[in-house]
Amino acid sequence: MIVTLSFTVINNGYSMSSTSKYIQYNFKLSSRSISFSEPGNYSKNFPQPQKTSLSLDIFDPDTYTDSKHTRVLHQSYWDFGKTFIFSKVKGTLYITVVLFRSYQNDLDLEKEDQFSKAIQLDFNKNNPKQDIKDYGITPPEEFKLITINRIQWVHYVYDVGGEKKFIYTIPLSEHHYLKVNLNFIDNSPGEKNNWKEHATSTMNQIMSSFKIN
């Protein structure tokens, strides 16, 4: 089921920090240029991104580093709800930006209806029934066409072991696409806190900063 939505991200008043410096990242992926910005106050418990620019030939098979047709371009982590007790944090937001070569060689990803279909088929390919059972995966209920600041994404949400994963995808060529994964790590399940509201605001700010040419 494909649902089309259109919206503009609005800052709801939450942010990582009023003094947080934003860093811009730029990727040149063959003929496509991608840029986005994110807060620079990264989590100290995870590796921090090193490069702010990258250039790759998406048609070169050697670009992809594993059997799943993927190349991780960028990964970042931010902590929320910090306490002074043992430097504990209530939760972490992380983003992974991935270049993906579709398994669906018979579909043209630059055609809207075929791209949506390919995304669903690729999800099923990467998450076989046994993995869904073993890892407690709840497949997406729907795949939506969402426009964020004039960029149209195919967006879906699924659950792995109780943690939601928010996925945004956009085609780069006939057989390649960009996938943005945004996920929460909850260190305080069941506790009353608003860290996910803060993290969601940051997630929305990042997605609204994307520019693709």
Q: Outline the biggest β-sheet.
A: 8 strands, mixed
Give the overall form: globular
Residue-averaged pLDDT = 87
Number of helices: 3
Tally of DSSP β-strands: 12
Query: For this entry, what is the oligomeric state of its chains?
Result: single chain
Task: Give the low-confidence spans.
Answer: 1-18
Distance between the termini: 28 Å
Q: What is the alpha-carbon Rg in Å?
A: 17 Å
**Any idea how many domains?**
1
Structural class call reads alpha+beta
- Please trace the helix and strand order, writing H or E for each element: EEEEEEHHEEEEEHE
Strand content: 35-45%
3D architecture notes:
This protein has 213 residues and is α+β, with helices and mostly antiparallel strands. It has one domain (2-8, 20-212). Helix content is 16%, strand content 43%. It is built from three helices and twelve strands, in the order E-E-E-E-E-E-H-H-E-E-E-E-E-H-E. Strands 1, 5, 6, 7, 8, 9, 10 and 11 form an eight-stranded mixed sheet that branches. It has a four-stranded mixed sheet with strand order 4-2-3-12. Strand 9 and strand 10 (163-171) form a beta hairpin. The protein is globular and about 55 Å long. The two termini are 28 Å apart.
Primary descriptors:
single chain; 213 residues; alpha+beta; eight-stranded mixed β-sheet; four-stranded mixed β-sheet; 3 helices; 12 strands; 16% helix; 43% strand; globular; disordered N terminus
Give a concise summary.
The protein is α+β, with helices and mostly antiparallel strands. The chain has helices at residues 112-126, 129-134, 195-208, and strands spanning 2-7, 22-29, 32-39, 53-56, 70-82, 89-101, 137-138, 143-148, 151-160, 163-171, 176-186, 211-212. It has one domain.
